[in-house]
Specification:
The chain is mainly beta and 186 residues long. The chain has one domain: UDP N-Acetylglucosamine Acyltransferase, domain 1 (3 Solenoid). The chain is built from one helix and 22 strands. Strands 2-5-8-11-16-19-21-22 form an eight-stranded mixed sheet. A six-stranded parallel sheet has the order 1-4-7-10-15-18. The termini are far apart. It binds coenzyme A. Coenzyme A binds next to strand 21 and strand 22.
Length: 186
């Protein structure tokens, strides 16, 4: 048996496990456009009445969570990389464009707890949800929080630790809490 074949056979359990994970997720409300995906360990991918879609060649590192509550929808474009412990949680809709890079421990939410009435418990006031749209080829660095109703334009970079509360245009670097544009990329 030549070395390439031996290598292939030694990797078979790993390939089988990977395929099982993708198949398990693709049953039910998770749609995968291709089986060329990498899904790491302890990832949580759950949709209630909405759905989650992964285009081709997405990479989810360990402990990534994609959660669509109620009728929430999450769509990930092609060739997206999401680093460890990041979470995307939708009650309405979150779209992430092709080729985005999402660092570790990033949180993207399309909803807040409603808190307008100071005389009632916040947990009893329900939620306010507005869709989030992240363009193509966006790099969201580590520990960023993206809040509801925000869009981030194509090719932009969001610096580490930023809190994105307003929309960010295309082709810029934005940093800080709240995130502000510090320069154009070209
Ligand atoms: C945003 C980042 C990529 C730098 O991009 P850049 O185009 O080289 O930007 P610059 O370094 O020229 O910074 C521009 C300004 O923003 C500031 N800045 C950069 N990153 C910042 C951040 N995360 N928070 C606050 N301010 C920041 C810089 O101090 C600089 O300000 P100044 O002009 O007053 O000195 C980088 O700072 C960063 O956040 N890296 C994180 C890397 C990471 O998360 N890696 C994980 C791998 S997925």
């Amino acid at each position: 048996m030549n070395r390439r074949r031996l290598y292939f056979y030694s990797r078979l359990p790993f390939y089988a496990l990977r395929l099982c994970r993708i198949l398990a997720f693709s049953l039910g409300r998770v749609r995968v456009r291709s089986f060329k995906q990498y899904i790491g360990k302890n990832c949580r991918i759950e949709a209630e009445r909405g759905w989650i879609q992964l285009d081709r060649r997405c990479t989810l590192a360990d402990r990534v969570s994609l959660i669509a509550f109620g009728k929430g929808v999450i769509t990930l474009g092609a060739e997206i990389f999401i680093n460890e412990s990041s979470r995307i949680v939708a009650m309405e809709r979150i779209d992430v464009g092709d080729n985005c890079l999402i660092g570790d421990s990033v949180s993207i939410y399309d909803h807040d707890h409603a808190h307008a009435d100071p005389h009632r418990l916040i947990r009893k006031q329900g939620y306010v949800a507005t869709p989030v749209r992240i363009g193509r080829n966006v790099w969201i660095c580590s520990h960023v929080v993206v809040c509801k109703g925000v869009s981030i334009g194509d090719n932009s970079v969001i610096g580490a630790g930023s809190v994105v509360t307003h929309s960010i245009p295309a082709d810029v670097v934005a940093v800080g809490a709240p995130a502000r544009v510090v320069k154009r990329r070209y």
